[in-house]
Every structure is written in structure tokens, then in C-alpha cells.
Fold this protein.
Amino acid sequence: MSRADPAPPRAVEPAPAAAPLPAAFYDRPVLEVAPALVGCVVRHGDTAGVIVETEAYHHSEPACHAYVGLTARTRPLFGPAGVAYVYRSYGIHALLNAVCEPEGVGAAVLIRALAPLDGLEVMRARRRVARDAELCSGPGKLTQALGVGLEHNATSLVDGPVRIEPRPPAWAAPALLTGPRVGITKAADLPWRFCAAGSRHVSRPWPPGLRDAAA
DNA sequence: CATGGGATTGACT
DNA sequence: GTCAATCCCATGC
């Protein structure tokens, strides 16, 4: 083509994928990693979203799958940090976790909700919901929207197909709310859930009294 | 080998 | 507010 030709139209602007978080980010206490992941970006293919809700799990408490010890199922949880732990919930949904802490410690952060960032049209095609706020507002919803499945279990979040990137500038210091984890019966009192204050994309609203910190 | 529960969601009353 | 769908796997006989 000649120089006078207009640039060919691009179907999709290339995703400005940042360098992913290093494994060392995850290799520390899970209660530090869980709030630190809020505002970071989960990316898979053309789709990406900003994490607005997380929960911490640790093998010392019975709500964690690793509580039962090292089994074929829980092996990734006890492995090195920076790896995905994806499992099926209620026979239907795939839930995405980021394995934390040194090898031998069974700990992970459950990614519970995202604010959609890139690939909105792909997400809408996968989710078929009325409003964009429902695309990723739950742990099973976001994996469906991003195309994350059980095949991603035990893959690297640093150089695998599903990656997590540092907080973009707009999310440099998100206001956080803390509360009890959702949907569990054991160790339900631990306040190990972390949300971006005021986000419309969280999986469940906060009880009255915690809303005043909303940004 | 049979059983039961689960870090959920969507449809329905 | 209630409830079914659906499957992996830990546990127990």
C-alpha cells in the first residue's frame, strides 16, 4: 500500500497489557495479598477487569479447601505462589483463586468480582445479561465473562494464559471495606473479605453501617 | 463403591 | 423471599 493510504482500520486496539505482578507479590501472608489485589487487573485474552472484591483463605481455618490437607484437589493450594487455583463450585461454576504464601502453605485469594475493563463485547456475548454491572459481579460470573475454566487450574498467573497486572493509575489507592466472607458456614466470623468502597460491581451489597466509607 | 456437601447463580413466588 | 441445577472429590462403609 502507498503512503497516502489511510491506516487500515483495526478491528480491536491491542490490549495495553502491563507487565504482570511477579510471583513475589503473592509469596507473603494471604491477608496482605487479598486487600493488595483490589484494584489490580485480571486479564485473559481480549478480556480484562479490575478486581473490586476478594476473599482470603488459609489452611488453618475450615472454610479453606486446604484445611483437609494435601490431596490431589488441593495440591495447587500448597504449591508455589503466583499460580491459579480454579475449582468447580456447586457442580456448575468455576471459581478463580490466586495461590499465595510459600510452598507448603495452603492459602489463596478468591477473586469475587471485577469492574469490566476490556473486551466488553466478548463478555456480553458470553454472559447475556441485561446490564454491564452484572457481567462480573460474582465469582462464577467473572470466570464466565473472561472465559476462565477448570483447564486453567494450576497455570501460572505470571506467565500463563490468565494474568494479573498491577493497579492502573486510576486505582492506585482504592478505599477498602472489610467484612465477613460470603457463602460459607465454617469460620464465617473471620472478616477476610475485601471490597473496593462504593463499587457498583461487587457481588453482594454491604450491610447497613458499612456504606458510609463509600468513595 | 455410595454418599453428601459445597467459596453460586438464575429463575421463580 | 425460596429452590433446583449439576459435578468434583473427601469421606466412610
